[in-house]
Structure formats: structure tokens, C-alpha cells
């Protein structure tokens, strides 16, 4: 299955969408508004960049389905589905923080086979195909060789109740450093290139957030595995490091403590679960 033409197109339109975002970012023309939650924001730049991506893909591959964060689902009959996040890290973007990305992936069935993540602020393009290496600007990249949590920089995109659970918190805070960067796409791209060593996130059905990034990690030599005891949560990184996170005898076993619901200021942990930076 040759997907090089799709990769070339996806890379090109990611660059074009990135140029749209940079124009809005530099001009300060953001027009930020909330979506379903107050913390979940969208800007005119999201909409403009997504239009570039959706229009190009629909024209080139009219039978493919498209799942886009802002405009939703477009059905197709080919068995292929493009997942689009035109601006991963909107809260950073709206605050003037230059840490955000354009993220695209192609799935055949439920299997990611192509990934493109473009970081316009650093002019870095991360790409991968299912049968080739992960690359940064055309150069092969690999995960770090780190095997112990204490030596790792760890990125967290976990729900509130999970990241405050003592079984996870003790591991996270034993690391060399914990990062909540506001861009899951860049977290996973940076794991793939070894800048970060481990990322923890949630499989919440929002495929545009993680499908492509997980392909980058696996094609860079890493793994994506369930976080034991926490259904729907996963770790992405080197196999030895993921194993270390689970099995070290320095911390309580992940699957032997009962999660509790605490109340702080009238808000339970479950009510806080979706309070993540996007």
C-alpha cells in the first residue's frame, strides 16, 4: 500500500494551514470564544485553518471520510478516514504562547497509517507512514533510550482525577520533570524525537488528538500501552520506560488501590475529569 502521495499532500496542506495560523497569531486577530465548556476555546484561526485542510482533502479524496475537530464528521465510502486537528493547543495560541501545532492522520478502519504534525512556531514537520520510520523534516528520528522514570521528562494530558490519584502522582513526581504543555500532538511528536521520554494521555474518542501522534511514537521505536488499573488511559514511550512506570517496587501497584472520590470546594474529582488544557 503506497501512501506517499497522501503523505506529500498532507504535509503540503499542513504547511498551508500553519501559515494561516501564523498570520492570525502574529496579527493578534483571534476572536476567542468557548465551545461546550468554558475552558475549551476556539478561535477564528481554528476555523480558517480547518477549512484549508478539509477543502484540500475533500477535493483530492472525495470518497474518504473526514473527522475534523471543529466541523465534525464527513462520511465517505472508501474505508479511509482523515482525522484533523487544525490547531492543537488553542489555549496556548489564544494566550500568545507559541506552542501549538497542526495535526493530521489517516486511518484505514481503526488503524492509523499516516501522521503529519506541523509546528509552525519552530518550522518543524513530523511525519510517519505505517511501514516507514518517523521523521522530522525528512530525517529519521527515534525515541530516547531512557529506561527509568527518575531519568525521564514526562508529559501529562490526563484527566484531573487520574493525575491526582496517588498511584499515578507518585510516579509522575518522581520523574526528572513533569510537563503539561497544552499540546498533545507536540507531546507525542517530542516523545518520538526523544525530547520528552514519556507521555500519558486519555483515549477519549477524539482521534484527532492522538491517532497521528501515537503512530509517530511507534514508528520511532516506542510503544503505546494501557495504563494498568485506569481504563482508557495510555502511556507512550520506550518499552523499558513504560514497563518501569508499571512495575517498579518503589511505588504502590497501579492495580491494587481503590480510587476514591474526594470533594474540594464543592467539586468532585469526577466533575473535574475533563478540565484539561486544549
Automatic annotation (TrEMBL):
<dbReference type="GO" id="GO:0008934">
    <property type="term" value="F:inositol monophosphate 1-phosphatase activity"/>
</dbReference>
<feature type="compositionally biased region" description="Low complexity">
    <location>
        <begin position="254"/>
        <end position="268"/>
    </location>
</feature>
<dbReference type="InterPro" id="IPR033942">
    <property type="entry name" value="IMPase"/>
</dbReference>
<feature type="binding site">
    <location>
        <position position="88"/>
    </location>
    <ligand>
        <name>Mg(2+)</name>
    </ligand>
</feature>
<keyword id="KW-0378">Hydrolase</keyword>
<dbReference type="InterPro" id="IPR020550">
    <property type="entry name" value="Inositol_monophosphatase_CS"/>
</dbReference>
<feature type="region of interest" description="Disordered">
    <location>
        <begin position="246"/>
        <end position="278"/>
    </location>
</feature>
<dbReference type="GO" id="GO:0046872">
    <property type="term" value="F:metal ion binding"/>
</dbReference>
<dbReference type="Pfam" id="PF00459">
    <property type="entry name" value="Inositol_P"/>
</dbReference>
<dbReference type="InterPro" id="IPR000760">
    <property type="entry name" value="Inositol_monophosphatase-like"/>
</dbReference>
<feature type="binding site">
    <location>
        <position position="209"/>
    </location>
    <ligand>
        <name>Mg(2+)</name>
    </ligand>
</feature>
<dbReference type="GO" id="GO:0006020">
    <property type="term" value="P:inositol metabolic process"/>
</dbReference>
<keyword id="KW-0479">Metal-binding</keyword>
<dbReference type="GO" id="GO:0046854">
    <property type="term" value="P:phosphatidylinositol phosphate biosynthetic process"/>
</dbReference>
<dbReference type="GO" id="GO:0007165">
    <property type="term" value="P:signal transduction"/>
</dbReference>
<comment type="function">
    <text>Catalyzes the dephosphorylation of histidinol-phosphate to histidinol, the direct precursor of histidine.</text>
</comment>
<comment type="similarity">
    <text>Belongs to the inositol monophosphatase superfamily.</text>
</comment>
<comment type="pathway">
    <text>Amino-acid biosynthesis; L-histidine biosynthesis; L-histidine from 5-phospho-alpha-D-ribose 1-diphosphate: step 8/9.</text>
</comment>
<feature type="compositionally biased region" description="Basic and acidic residues">
    <location>
        <begin position="269"/>
        <end position="278"/>
    </location>
</feature>
<feature type="binding site">
    <location>
        <position position="85"/>
    </location>
    <ligand>
        <name>Mg(2+)</name>
    </ligand>
</feature>
<keyword id="KW-0460">Magnesium</keyword>
<dbReference type="GO" id="GO:0004401">
    <property type="term" value="F:histidinol-phosphatase activity"/>
</dbReference>
<protein>
    <recommendedName>
        <fullName>Inositol-1-monophosphatase</fullName>
        <ecNumber>3.1.3.25</ecNumber>
    </recommendedName>
</protein>
<feature type="binding site">
    <location>
        <position position="69"/>
    </location>
    <ligand>
        <name>Mg(2+)</name>
    </ligand>
</feature>
<feature type="binding site">
    <location>
        <position position="87"/>
    </location>
    <ligand>
        <name>Mg(2+)</name>
    </ligand>
</feature>
Amino acid at each position: 500500500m503506497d501512501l506517499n502521495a497522501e503523505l506529500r499532500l498532507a504535509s503540503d496542506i499542513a504547511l498551508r494551514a500553519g501559515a494561516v495560523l501564523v498570520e492570525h497569531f502574529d496579527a493578534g486577530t483571534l476572536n476567542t470564544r468557548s465551545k461546550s465548556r468554558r475552558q475549551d476555546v476556539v478561535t477564528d484561526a481554528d476555523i480558517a485553518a480547518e477549512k484549508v485542510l478539509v477543502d484540500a482533502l475533500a477535493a483530492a479524496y472525495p470518497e474518504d471520510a473526514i473527522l475534523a475537530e471543529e466541523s465534525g464528521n464527513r462520511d465517505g465510502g472508501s474505508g479511509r478516514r482523515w482525522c484533523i486537528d487544525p490547531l492543537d493547543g488553542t489555549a496556548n495560541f489564544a494566550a500568545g504562547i507559541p506552542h501549538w501545532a497542526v495535526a493530521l492522520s489517516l486511518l484505514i478502519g481503526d488503524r492509523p497509517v499516516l501522521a503529519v504534525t506541523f509546528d509552525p512556531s519552530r518550522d518543524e514537520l513530523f511525519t510517519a507512514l505505517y511501514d516507514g520510520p518517523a521523521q522530522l523534516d525528512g530525517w529519521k528520528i527515534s525515541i530516547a533510550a531512557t529506561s527509568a522514570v527518575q531519568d525521564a521528562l514526562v508529559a501529562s494530558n490526563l484527566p484531573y482525577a487520574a493525575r491526582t490519584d496517588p498511584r499515578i502522582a507518585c510516579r509522575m513526581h518522581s520523574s526528572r520533570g513533569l510537563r503539561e504543555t497544552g499540546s498533545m500532538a507536540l507531546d507525542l511528536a517530542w516523545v518520538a524525537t526523544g525530547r520528552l521520554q514519556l507521555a500519558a494521555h486519555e483515549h477519549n474518542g477524539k482521534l484527532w488528538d492522538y491517532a497521528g501522534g501515537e503512530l509517530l511514537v511507534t514508528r520511532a521505536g516506542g510503544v503505546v500501552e494501557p495504563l494498568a488499573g485506569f481504563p482508557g488511559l495510555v502511556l507512550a514511550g520506550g518499552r523499558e520506560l513504560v514497563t518501569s512506570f508499571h512495575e517498579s517496587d518503589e511505588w504502590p501497584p497501579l492495580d491494587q488501590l481503590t480510587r476514591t472520590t474526594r470533594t474540594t470546594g464543592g467539586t468532585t474529582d469526577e466533575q473535574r475529569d475533563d478540565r484539561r488544557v486544549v
